[in-house]
From TrEMBL:
PANTHER family: ASPARTATE AMINOTRANSFERASE. It holds the Pfam family Aminotran_1_2. The lineage of its organism: Bacteria, Pseudomonadati, Pseudomonadota, Alphaproteobacteria, Hyphomicrobiales. This is Aminotransferase. Its cofactor is pyridoxal 5'-phosphate. It comes from Mesorhizobium argentiipisi. NCBIfam families: PRK06108.1. It comes from the Bacteria. It catalyses: L-aspartate + 2-oxoglutarate = oxaloacetate + L-glutamate. Its EC number is 2.6.1.-. Keywords: Aminotransferase, Pyridoxal phosphate, Transferase. Gene3D superfamilies: Type I PLP-dependent aspartate aminotransferase-like (Major domain). GO terms for molecular function: transaminase activity. InterPro entries: Aminotransferase_I/II_large, AspAT/PAT-like, NHTrfase_class1_PyrdxlP-BS, PyrdxlP-dep_Trfase, PyrdxlP-dep_Trfase_major. It is an enzyme of class 2 (transferase).
Length: 388
């Protein structure tokens, strides 16, 4: 028996990231424009970094509240009051070591060996992989796509539910499709979860990256305090803090001790000086978010315009998040195409195969970058398409 054969089957089955495989292929190429990862090109604003640096200089390098320092949990309550019009106590927030950590803890609290968890696909691959590592069975339900864009058929979710189903994972606005649920769809999903006694993990990380009027619709608009919903989120996108690895869970206060215990047995908490930066982001970062969203809107329109003019790119203009998920006429192998685009167009994209069922024919482009780079990348892609 080999060493790897002695590991848990769930660990051995954890898939290699289809996105990272392309990144590793092209990351050192001179002049490559990287649009493969889900982040912008702006560094963290100085008002956030300075607050963290001050905490570090002040000696905030010891163990601290595992659930998050009171100042950060209070700042989260203020953030929700401003953006969602809801009043929450600090006891309803748990600070985590990234949004991914928040998702892992939410899964750990609800689903285990043999339990089924339903998610909407194409999807950010980390949820399904994390559920599998926990021993649960991820069950994809594909979004529908038509000339009117992406949509969610709630009847398809209902048909996928079995006696082993424990939770629904709902990411809206969606990575990678940009699909954004309207209030009626959220209500139908919530009604179904209530009827079947299921939990919802609501990933609303892109709520403020919404190109309609104001933020995207949220389960918070329709939920009651006793609904079985865990909200997972991250500082990564709104405040250009992807490398910080700080996130949070919004939960019922009765569950706080459970999640504090799960923090204890995973990371034992987030560094206090980093939490000082997160407080600054929440309390002083609304203007930065507005600037980021408007920048992303202009970038979206630029890329969609250039690729649309080729007559070969097929896509729905995304309603939210900052990705363009598109097909190319005549393209049958998106994974192979992603490597070919690196080699021949010097642009880095993520292959749709990395995002599960429904994504196989697509490529994902992160447009959250400065306009001159995006214009050059879009023209390179247009030239590549025309040569097919």
């Amino acid at each position: 028996m080999t060493l790897i054969e002695t590991l848990r089957p769930e660990a051995r089955a954890a898939p290699e990231s289809g996105i990272v495989a392309v990144i590793n292929h092209g990351r050192l190429r001179e002049g490559l424009i990287p649009l493969w990862a889900g982040e912008g090109d702006l560094p963290t604003p100085s008002f956030i970094s300075d607050a963290a640096a001050k905490g570090l200089a002040d000696g905030e390098t010891f163990y601290t509240w595992q659930k998050g320092i009171p100042a950060l949990r209070q700042a989260l309550a203020r953030y929700y009051a401003r953006h969602f019009g809801k009043t929450f106590a600090e006891e309803e927030f748990i600070v985590t070591g990234s949004g991914m950590h928040a998702i892992q803890l939410a899964i750990d609290a609800i689903a285990g060996s043999g339990d089924e968890v339903i998610y909407l696909s194409p999807a950010w691959p980390n949820f399904a992989a994390a559920a599998g590592v926990a021993g649960a069975v991820p069950v994809p339900v594909t979004l529908d796509q038509s000339g009117n864009g992406w949509s969610c058929d709630v009847d398809k979710i209902a048909a996928a539910i079995t006696p082993r189903t424990k939770l629904l994972f709902i990411n809206t606005p969606s990575n990678p499709t940009g699909w954004t649920a309207d209030k009626e769809t959220l209500q139908a999903i919530l009604n179904l979860a209530r009827q079947k006694g299921l939990w919802i993990i609501a990933d609303e990380i892109y709520s403020l990256f919404h190109y309609g009027h104001g933020r995207a619709p949220s389960f918070l608009d329709i939920a009651t305090p006793e609904d079985r919903i865990l909200f997972v989120n991250s500082f990564s996108k709104n405040w250009a803090m992807t490398g910080w690895r700080v996130g949070w869970i919004k939960t019922h206060p009765a569950l706080q001790q459970v999640f504090e215990n799960l923090i204890q047995y995973s990371t034992s908490g987030v560094a206090q000086f980093m939490q000082r930066g997160a407080v600054a982001a929440l309390d002083g970062g609304d203007g930065f978010i507005v600037e980021q969203v408007e920048r992303a809107r202009a970038a979206r329109d630029l890329v969609c315009g250039i690729l649309g003019e080729t007559g070969k790119a097929r896509f729905t203009v995304p309603q939210g998040a900052f990705y363009l998920f598109f097909r190319v006429d005549g393209l049958t192998d998106a994974r192979k195409a992603a490597f070919d685009i690196v080699d021949n167009a010097n642009v880095g994209l993520a292959p749709g195969t990395a995002f599960g069922p429904g994504g196989e024919a697509f490529l994902r482009l992160c447009f959250h970058r400065r306009l001159d780079q995006l214009e050059e990348a879009a023209h390179r892609l247009a030239k590549w398409m025309k040569a097919l």
